[in-house]
Give the backbone structure.
Amino acid sequence: MSIEQDPFREATGMYVLGALGAEERRAFEAHLPECEACATEVRSLRAVTGALPYAVPYADPPPALRGRVLAAAVQARRPSPIVGCEPQRKPASAAAAAGVAPRSAPWAWGAAAASVLVAVGLAAYAGNLRAQLRDSQIRLVNAVSRLEESEQRLQVASRETTSVRASLALLTAADVVELRLRGQAPAPTASARAFLSRSRGVLFAATSLPAIPNDRTYQLWFLTPGAPVSAGLVRPDAEGSATAAFAPAGGVARPTGLALSLEPEGGVGAPTGAIYLVSQ
Ligand SMILES: [Zn+2]
């Protein structure tokens, strides 16, 4: 049988690669049981392609690539003087009698090799795309993580800068006065220093404050000619040291001093507990 009689012979490589259209594939599969030569080539191609790195998941190559591959395959076949398949036991003289050269083994294996190269190329292309995608994803995650870290550091630095700036403004305020606070009966060894400005607030630093229960808090008060006004809560560290900055007392024209008392957690509106520190 000549190639004119059996056009399927050319389709074996594309069939094994799954590159035939649905109609072509159906026609080819209908032809296979009737043509031992095509069946043999399909089996041999499958044996080769089965060894390819097909363990990777399938990914669609771009449509343009398929077009280029098909065009290249058609181009490569054109110059070859080819003979169609024939039943294996059919004498070669029949082909010769049909006026065409006998099918050449080198061409057959050339076609198979081309098909394998296409398969290898597609598999490598897909594998490479996946590797690039994974790499890009990893780099993106790393970049986002670094960005978040930088933002957190920036926020901390910004808060610290604001705090330092406020402290500097307070310490250099025209009306700042330095106060010394002395420990009272519950904490005779405790002491504190404070910088008090009516316009800027108060900067407070205490040492040797006794540890207190979890349901209690230290609370700092502006002393005034009238009732004390809360400055804020003070939380000492494990060594009993505490530093804190508080805004100016709203509505207090002239604080006369500071005092620290022990109060229920969360603080209170007016002092109720024992006084631990009082300014001299
Ligand atoms: Zn055939």
